[in-house]
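User: For my dataset I need records formatted as: sequence, then structure tokens, nothing else. Please produce one.
Assistant:
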Amino acid sequence: MKSILHVNSINELHKLMHYGKPKHPLISLMDLAKTQIDASENDTKIITNFYSITFKKIPNGTFLYGRKNCDYDEASLLCISPGQTITIKGIDKNWHMDGWGLFFHQDLIRNTFLMNKIEEYSFLGYNENESLHLSEHESDLLQKIINVIETEYQLNLDVYSRDIIVSNIEVLLNYCRRFYGRQFITRTSSNYETVGKFENYLKQYFTLDITKADGLPTVSYFADKLSLSASYLSDLLKQETGKSAKEHIHFKLIEVAKNRLLASNEPVSHIAYDLGFEQSQNFSRLFKQKTGYTPKEFRNTSE
């Protein structure tokens, strides 16, 4: 296994992909059919320092994103945030891929309205096996936006250029969010299965007293169990149940806490510790936030 390769700039990405010199230091749109990756880069882990939105179809060779192998038998869209890992595998002299890739550095959107809301686009944290599959109409629509962005940054830049580019990136992300919503709806049957598995894992976490050993349950814990990213799991649950993964965890925790409070006279601090809280004050604060009562008040009102 090779060492990790950090790609910190658009210029470094162009060198890696043998794509010539970029026309803008902070943003680039690549025709992926014209890119090339050396076979010597096989098994290389790549961590980029910029956002990537790629629409691609790879007839041979694969990309690993995190620990997951992505199936590119169908064209798909993948959005990646800075700091996430991609592993290149299966590259040979016949390797190629079709599609486009939009890459932009955080500095492009820094101190803009988009920087203030970029975290709202949770799909930027999805795994590669959670990529977005697009219809022909959806692909064409995104292509039109991409063309506007490319035309704008290749022109002679002026005081309006950045605003226009960033505005169109936001439009692109908004459409991606809409299309992911459509994908969640069309996968309802498999989503229900995932919801059921999540609820079982959540129940087991408390019935098996895993909290005593591992502390409070996290979204990442259940996402790993389900081979999903934390962001994807939370969005899926929100779509199917109206509650995020964190809200589900808190609801179950409070229900267990209520039962413990009413079933015994054990100190609140003991219950808090058993439920995974290092400090009972944090438990009391969450309990009051969710119920309107402190643990002691809840116990007293139920007597």
